[in-house]
Amino acid sequence: MSTSKPVLLSGIQPSGQLTLGNYIGAIRNWVDLQADYDCIFLLVDLHAITVRQDPAVLRQRCRDFLSLYIACGIDPEKNLLCAQSHVAGHSQLAWILDCYTMVGELNRMTQFKDKSAKHADNINAGLYNYPVLMAADILIYDTQLVPVGNDQKQHLELARDVAQRFNFAHKEEVFRIPEPFIPPVGARIMGLQNPEAKMSKSDDNEGNGIYLLDEPKKIAKKIKRAVTDSGSEVRAADDKPGVTNLLNIMAAVTGRSIEDLEADYGDSGYGRFKGDVADAVVAFMEPMQARYRALQDDPAYLDGILARSAEQAN
Ligand code: TYM
């Protein structure tokens, strides 16, 4: 990693299974931006332990996610691919930032409210302080750009507020104020069965998500069974959340604009449209999954990337 370019940082929690939403909302943009920035892509394993984890499973999942980052197009030679727990500075800075974060701010975090409802038997302090650790991940490297999906926007705003408060208190520009990068299309990919809620890594309804390691046949089946809306017109609109979601997915994996897709599919019915969405997603998935499988055969290579990246990050 050179030091001449601005720093870009992002991360994913190694929990559940990576979804097409994580790819479209985050990883795809990392791939596009990697040439212009010094990048750090994290596997945020310390964030993952806010929910109970089996250590061996978590360690393996970090390798699996790392393989997926690379299979999706992240270059491990030009970027740092780190496990958060391998760089102690993240947790050390988190404590300092805790002392500059207001309880009232943390109370407003919608993800904390959602996660507390989901894990009512384990509302631990880590879950509450989670956004402060995320702020530390970002601020410790003088990060300029943070590409994330829409659901992380609030956390990023908190990171900016805390950095500004710290700088103001010490009358010095200690932390750079990071900017979010939220993609214009695909910042919030919704569930296929419930297009009112986001597609999630840990969804109890398997048909709701497309997972990056789903077999192509299964992916096609899930897309063909996706909930669509009344009428038959292929058009993005608030009253058509199912079709709008499929349009976003297709636009993201093909690079075509929503308008172009609307013009192409307009009145031709949902059948042809869904078939083509499925083909487009599978055309992306197949070569990516082949690269993933090849990487899985070489755990020593993956561990080497993590060790080398952690050393440089430290
Ligand atoms: P996480 O692991 O929940 O999600 C990883 C990334 O995927 C995006 N994403 C989505 N984008 C579009 N549609 C969806 N349905 C969808 N679901 C998830 C998320 O917005 C995110 O960009 N706290 C973070 C991880 C983190 C982090 C950081 C991110 C820790 N430290 C520092 C950036 C910078 C999280 O839990 O993301």
How would you portray this structure in words?
With 314 residues, the protein is mainly α. Helices cover 52% and strands 7% of the residues. The protein has 13 helices and five strands. It has helices at residues 20-33, 45-48, 55-71, 89-98, 103-107, 110-118, 125-139, 153-169, 216-224, 241-254, 258-265, 270-296, 299-313, and strands at 7-12, 38-43, 80-83, 145-147, 179-181. A three-stranded parallel sheet has the order 1-2-3. A two-stranded parallel sheet has the order 4-5. α7 crosses α8 and α9 (216-224) runs antiparallel to α12. The mean pLDDT is 96. The protein binds tryptophanyl-5'AMP (TYM). The site of tryptophanyl-5'AMP (TYM) has 27 residues, from β1, α1 and α7.
Keywords:
single chain, 314 residues, mainly alpha, three-stranded parallel sheet, two-stranded parallel ribbon, binds tryptophanyl-5'AMP
**Span between N and C termini?**
13 Å
Radius of gyration: 20 Å
**Average pLDDT figure:** 96
Largest sheet: 3 strands, parallel
Residues in helix, %: 40-55%
Q: Topology as H/E string?
A: EHEHHEHHHHEHEHHHHH
Ligand catalogue? tryptophanyl-5'AMP
Give the tally of β-strands.
5
What spatial order of strands do you see in the largest sheet? 1-2-3
Q: Roughly what fraction of the amino acids lie in strands?
A: 5-15%
Instruction: Identify low-pLDDT runs.
Output: none
Number of helices: 13
What structural category characterises the helix and strand content? mainly alpha
